[in-house]
Amino acid sequence: MSMKKSFVALLIFVLAGSLLAACGKKSNSEASSGGGGSNKTVIKIATQSPLSGGSAVQGEAIKLGAQLSLDDHKDEFAKLGFDIQLAPYDDQADPKKGVANAELVAADKQILAVVGHMNSGVAIPSSVVYEKYNIPMVSPSNTATQVTDRKLKVVNRIVARDDFQGPAAAQYAVQTAGAKNIFVIQDKTAYGQGLAEAFKTEAEKQGAKIAGYESITIGEKDFNGILNQALTKKPDFIFFGGLYAEAGLLVKQAKEKGLDVPFMGADGIDTQGIVDVAGDKVTGVLYTSISTDITKTADGKAWADKYKQKFGKNVDGYSAYAYDCMSVILEALKKAINDNGGKLPSREQVRDAVRATKDFQGVATKVTFDDKGDNDYAKVFIYKFEKAAYPGSMISDISK
Amino acid sequence: MVSSILHSLPQVLVDGLTLGAVYAVVALGYTMVYGILELINFAHGEIFMTGAYVGTAVLFGFHALGWFEGAGWIAYMLILAAAMLFTGLLGVGIERVAYRPLRKAPKLISLISAIGVSFLLQDFVRFIAELRTGNYIVTGITLYNDNHKIATSSVSGVFGDAFLKTNTIIVFIVAVLMMVGLDMFSKRSKWGVAMRAVAQDRETASLMSINVNKVIALTFFIGSALGGATGVLFAQQYATIDPFIGYILGLKAFTAAVLGGIGNIRGAMFGGLLIGLLEMFAAANLGLITHGNFGAEYKDVFTFLILILVLIFKPQGLLGKAVKEKV
């Protein structure tokens, strides 16, 4: 018995020792690479997006988009004497994890800005941490109104707000699609609820009747109950505020019940995921998107090809916006460096430079931040799945 | 209001019975293990989930190899068998590793061990599922996807038509077969008698030359195999699975077992069907009944409210017998 115990103790000792050794090695190599690398000051830009879990596909696209922009600007910054690096964080689409990461970002003094988050629900609590440490964040996808309505100095987004996306969807539904009796479903998240409520208010203003306003629970797979309720109300249009996993199942189960009316979602279903889940039943599904079809323009097409070539993946809805977010940050960073006489700017200076962005032309959108951090040029686009393949085709766009 | 409720009733019944059948078979696993060990096997929901993944994976394998393209029912039976075998052995393994060493320890310790196993399985399956695509939400192949319309409206004008998938019928038939099979097994066969004997009094049973360890392992095998088979049925019915489907579903199946009287096999079946029906009815009609004050999202509250009411007046569950504490 005592042999066994001492053996275990030995094992623990060896393990702890090797861990320590590993740590030591790492810090050594870091120091040497920093010293050997021709004395460039390292500046890191973090990305915060879900790299694992249900939204990993979109989160990964955000990271890669930002990565591409960073690589494009690397030489430019090298000339100024800076080495820019990407620090990707996985927020797991979880507010708790997002805040924990934000603390880590704040603690790393080399990080001057953040691209992200993907989810409004994560961005809202995390941005409080950024505000405290003056780290500017530019989001490629946050649409909830609260994100910028709190008037934090660090928070910016380059896409449209829910209170514009929802109404734009409602405008399309009532005026173009001619819906009169609309059933609204939402998933009880900050994103889904904000969107659904904005849609509902505008649809009512436009003269449509709301047949029902119900919510579902994320993670469930059986939505027959709520759809049975919809069946009795005989709607001619269904709007869903939520994400693709639930949307795909709703579409599928609705069609299996013979509830064959137009189904509309928003940017949360703007992903390959919904095609995987709903299969060929996705045909005819409408969605609004805050992101444009990048391959429609020649420049955008060339950009998408470059992305594909570099990462071996097709562009996702947020890839180009993440690219633009990073470009906006780097542009501002450059300005901040120049204003600071070529020296490393403080986080405050970068923060103010980002907010001051005017008429910046990115690949996906033009960017001018207003005093809240919203983009004046943000547009909402309407897409439709003509066949069971992502992306759908862009059929309309609605600007502010 | 009544007319709307009646209108959707046929569809609510179809959907409720299907969901209820799934709950019922999963509840069997809880109730069998509780009956024999007085242990709430919280890993059972995850065994169900593992079954769903194994079935889907095997089906993907068939599809890639081009086997059984024309004969869906053979593939269906094979994936059921594969999932049952895998989860059955998994159940036996879990019992051997996580519960048997703790059999003499206080009940609370085994319970915590069960919760640990449940987390382990969840993350293990998540890890495996994520390897290929980086996304753990898996959408499988559905073998029977055609839709049927039951013209319930021709019976009486107050009803609307109901729709059901071929797979719904399969789910129901397989679930009933499994339940009847288990009922016969426990009542008629020698092993079934041995199982009930061990449930009644482990020590006396062992004096009657019953190998208690074997009987317990068998119970875990059967309970887990049933859970795994239900996982396959679930994956076929809803097509999309993730590693966390076992959590909520397991919780509800456990509720069903308690509602029916935990330890009682027929009670679990009855409880499962009842919970499925209640949940579906609440989701479809709560908004109507309360004039939109409480929407469909309160369906679980409604279901659990019924559970609490039943337990206040009949603490042993609907079909359970009040048993005296074992001495």
TrEMBL record, chain A:
One biological process term from GO is: amino acid transport
Q: Which UniProt keywords apply?
A: Amino-acid transport, Signal, Transport
Q: Which Pfam families does this one have?
A: Peripla_BP_6
- Is the NAD keyword given for this protein? no
Q: Which InterPro entries match?
A: Leu-bd, Leu_Ile_Val-bd, Peripla_BP_I
Question: For the Leucine-binding protein domain, which residue ranges apply?
Answer: 43-375
Provide the leader sequence positions: 1-21
Show the SUPFAM superfamilies listed in the entry.
Periplasmic binding protein-like I
Whether Protease counts among this entry's keywords is no
Q: Which domain of life is it from?
A: Bacteria
Q: Which family does it belong to?
A: Belongs to the leucine-binding protein family.
Q: Kindly give the PANTHER family that the UniProt entry links to this protein.
A: AMINO ACID BINDING PROTEIN, LEU/ILE/VAL-BINDING ABC TRANSPORTER SUBUNIT
Q: What is this protein called?
A: Branched-chain amino acid ABC transporter substrate-binding protein
Automatic annotation (TrEMBL), chain B:
Parts of the chain that traverse the membrane: 20-40, 47-68, 74-96, 108-129, 169-186, 215-238, 244-262, 269-289, 301-319
Does Transport show up as a keyword for this record?
Answer: yes
Q: What keywords does the record list, in alphabetical order?
A: Amino-acid transport, Cell inner membrane, Cell membrane, Membrane, Transmembrane, Transmembrane helix, Transport
MF (Gene Ontology)? L-isoleucine transmembrane transporter activity; L-leucine transmembrane transporter activity; L-phenylalanine transmembrane transporter activity; L-valine transmembrane transporter activity
* Superkingdom classification of source: Bacteria
Query: Would the keyword DNA repair turn up in this protein's UniProt record?
Result: no
Q: Which family does it belong to?
A: Belongs to the binding-protein-dependent transport system permease family. LivHM subfamily.
- Location in the cell: Cell membrane
- Which Gene Ontology cellular-component terms appear in the entry? plasma membrane
- Listed GO biological process terms: D-alanine transmembrane transport; L-alanine transport; L-isoleucine import across plasma membrane
**Main localization of the protein described in the UniProt heading:** membrane
Q: Kindly give the membrane topology term recorded for this protein.
A: Multi-pass membrane protein
InterPro entries in the cross-refs: ABC_transp_permease, BCAA_transport_permease
Looking up Pfam families in the UniProt record yields: BPD_transp_2
Q: What is this protein called?
A: Branched-chain amino acid ABC transporter permease
- Taxonomic source organism: Cohnella pontilimi
